[in-house]
Amino acid sequence: MSIEIKDVNKRFGDFVALENVNVSLPTGQLTALLGPSGGGKSTLLRIIAGLERADTGTVSIEGVDATRMSPQKRNVGFVFQHYAVFKHMTVAKNVAFGLEIRHRSKAEVRDRVAELLRLVHLSQFADRLPSQLSGGQRQRMALARALAVQPKVLLLDEPFGALDAKVRKELRDWLRRLHDEVPVTTVFVTHDQEEAMEVADEIVVINDGRIEQVGTPDSLYDQPANDFVMGFLGEVTQLGNVRLRPHDVEIARAPDLAGTVAADVLRLTRVGFEVRMVAGTEDGQEVSVVTTHAHARSLDLKEGERVWLTPSSGAATVPAMHALVPSGLAG
Amino acid sequence: MVELSAPVKWALRLIAVGYVLMLVGWPMVTLAQNAFSDGLTNFTSAFSDPDVVHAMVLTIEISGWAVAINTVFGVGMALLLVRYEFPGKRVLSALVDLPMAVSPVVIGLALLLVYNGRTGWFGPTLEANGVQVMFAMPAMIMATCFVSLPLVVREVVPVLTEIGDDQEQAARSLGASATQTLRRITLPAIKWAVVYGVVLTFARSIGEYGALKIVSGNLSGQTQNAPLVIAQLYDNFAKGEAYAVAFTLVLLAVLCIVIVSLLRPKESSS
């Protein structure tokens, strides 16, 4: 295991940022720390980087205890949400910074900078100032700068958070491909579950300073450990006394299946190829169901008609812990 | 912009220009006229007096020291105030502004109380060890540093606040030590603010009168700076010479302001 976090606690005044955090982040993989804002994920990342110090607990990187190590000794690359570019230096100088600090030879610095700028597709911008680059280009430059020193781990704090949706999506795909080319252990913080699911090999869900679940995107989505994880990773609805995904509810026009629940169609909304249905049960529960347009048509669904709802076999369900707001959509 | 009618516009312009003209422009023009009333005679006569030349040199020398000291302490203080949290920070911040509010004469008196050779707190001990503070260079530099203390700090603080510590953290994570980060990241980022503060400090220092009048002893040819010599010349009815020296000081100050206004656009684009 590349990064071992043991019993880490961190408070800011009265605010508990992290509480008894224990987690191992695997070598060579792309791990996402996922959770809502203020949940402690950035604090954990900054503790790994040494930019913040844990009140108690230990951090070890590649088997070396780094708990008391200053950031410049840890050999980690850190990429900030707002790029943290060195404004007064050219793109090439920015990338060269870590190498020049390490007193590498001029030729080596030049070759390495050229190689990295090629990797992040910024070769033609080498002599520009960061202020002449777009947000996405600046973040790629920051990434090249962090990679230049060949860090043992690469840490990214909401790296695409300040970019617009289109650029964010492009950079996300690009980061995934870059990681396949340069397989350095990478940890990135995000509050966007789609980003985490799409990019990461492994996801650590953090909420309220605690780790809720660790696993691959699929295992988290299919076997959420609790209500929170299920709600954070996608839409959730309630049928009877279980919570499940709206697309895991089967619709029938007759009570054929055991445990099926009768409901009346309240609303039907078509969005492209999918149909979203809200149905009211006899207990007054409102259930959200998502199905394909073709399936809805074959069932001949209409508002006000009776349907029977059943959790589909193999659906991810968690028991409902508390009375829910009707058809609560979390995400 | 609110649209103003033409007469109101002209009236406002007239008031603004008139105000500056009556308060600054006209007196300065008159000063120049009086300084050059006999061609360059006033200047040659004033600057052939070794005491005047000494006073000018002394003024530049004191200002140089004040600039050097206040630059180092000003940048340090600004870093302390922006980047660190500590008890008493607000008190320190208020103390930095104090010289702006207190009359220089009061500052001179306060220094005199602490450092004079007979009854001061440190004065007798220092003089017993051969260090003459009062009525000598050290006291004059101290007084000038005191009055110009806030200028560098107040220039640098907002810039440091605005750039934040992201770049410094990035440098640390890339392996830079605290000194390397300061030299390669922080100082280049606040460069223009420091330059601006230095020029203001210099301009303020060359004109200091009140505090120096008290702590210098005002000895001709020894501890008299340019403003003091101007006052003395004027009191001794050498008005032409007084105007000439005064005009030279104004010229120096104007030069500083010109430098600042030349630097300003660069500051915004960096």
Account of the 3D structure:
By secondary structure, chain A is of the alpha+beta class. Chain A is 29% helix and 32% strand. Chain A contains ten helices and 18 strands. In chain A, a hairpin with a 2-residue loop joins strand 9 and strand 10 (210-215). In chain A, helix 3 (91-101) crosses helix 4 (106-119) and helix 3 packs parallel to helix 5 (135-148). Chain A starts with a strand and ends in a 12-residue tail after the last strand. Mean pLDDT of chain A is 90; it is low at 323-331. Chain B has one domain: MetI-like (MetI-like fold, Orthogonal Bundle), CATH 1.10.3720. In chain B, helix 3 packs antiparallel against helix 9 (178-206) and helix 9 (178-206) runs antiparallel to helix 12. The two termini of chain B are 28 Å apart. Chain A binds chain B through residues 49-51, 70-72, 74-78, 80, 82-88, 97-98, 101-102, 142, 145-146, 148-149, and chain B through 163, 166-167, 169-177, 180, 184-185, 188-189, 191, 270.
| Helix-strand sequence of chain A | EEEHEEHEHHHEHEHEEHHEEEEEEHEE
CATH class assignment of chain B:
Mainly Alpha
The CATH architecture term of chain B is: Orthogonal Bundle
- For the CA atoms, what is the radius of gyration of chain B? 22 Å
**Low-confidence blocks of residues of chain B:** none
DSSP strand count of chain B: 0
**What is the CATH fold-level name of chain B?**
MetI-like fold
User: What fraction of residues of chain A sit in β-strands?
Assistant: 25-35%
Q: Order of strands in the sheet with the most strands of chain A?
A: 6-7-8-3-9-10
| Share of helical residues of chain B | over 70%
The pair of chains with the biggest contact is: A-B, 28 and 19 residues
Helix/sheet category of chain B: mainly alpha
The CATH superfamily of chain B is MetI-like
